[in-house]
Input
Amino acid sequence: MTEPRPPRSTRLESRTFILLLIAVTIGFGWILVPFFGAVFWGVVMAILFSPVHRRLVPKLGGRRTPAALVTLALILVIVIIPTVMITGALVREAATVYARTQSGELNFPLYFAQVYDALPTWVTSLLDRAGLGNLAELQAKLTASLQQIGQFVGAQALAIGQNTLDLVVSFFVMLYLMFFLLRDGGALSRRIREAVPLNDAHKRELSQKFATVVRATVKGNVLVAIAQGALGGIAFAFLGIHAALLWAVLMAFLSLLPAVGAGLIWAPVAIYFLVTGAVAKGVILIAYGVLVIGLVDNVLRPVLVGKDTKMPDYVVLISTLGGMAIFGLNGFVIGPVIAAMFMAVWDLYIVERTAVPEEIPISRHPGEGRDPVPPNTVQDPGLRRDDSEGV
Output
């Protein structure tokens, strides 16, 4: 017997409602585009500090609003104020380096020529075969690259100065959003889970995976990057290298990329020391880079991230590079999150496809397929058996 088909008007109303739902969702996302960075980092910070908020609620008598305010103050003191101070110092130091490069006080092509002249003959022959033996051409390319970097830094500084009002508005939008996400985030996440048309097990798995990866990426990778950048900056300052803060930030930035890391900064500097006669400085920097900067990732990352949530390094590398190419600086979080959700969804799909369905015994008669009850057997009083029906 076939079930009656729903009336055509009912199906039309359902499809119209779905289209309306999609349209208003796209429209809401569209109006959030100008504040994408503020909304994104507000959500990330709320997810990262939600455990702190949950611990503060009982200590403040179950009042969620004061707990959210205290958590927001902690975010300001721990994250936002130091970031603003470091960014201001970095902009000033980058401008100083650019000015010294323009005046000739810092001559990177000369440093490159010194390294090239000190290379062994077999290395220079390999460079010649690879088409990299033309020193003048390499110097021209290096100079052009440095000029482009300087122009980019200057353009970014000018953009920051011109868009100060937008930055201030975005900053307060982020703080405002963080407060309400901390206070009402639990109810909002439950509401979102109820609206997602998946079974409860899948929704629970995906939501836990999302929160875990966000916390792991920010708390783990960022703290590891900060540690490596700080250690590298201390070494550069101790060895008397100019613009130690600038190089420290670059090392921290590159530390977000596994298999690449801060070695792209300290290794060329160590090579320069070795080939220019500062052998002691070169050996110290190499030993420090390998034993301290290089190993801090292996020591801190398992503690901060956890081995069970760590994705393969090649997945992290590709997703981080791709995310930053598409979303800019925000991509170092967005890329790994998308990759982790991709892997989680496919894992759930594979589990569903390979799950063995439970076998249900098929019987032609009501009493067939059951063990018969021996006569004169006392049954459980809680079980009622109707002998006339056999059930």
Notes: The two ends are 25 Å apart (CA to CA). The chain has two domains: 14-190, 196-354.
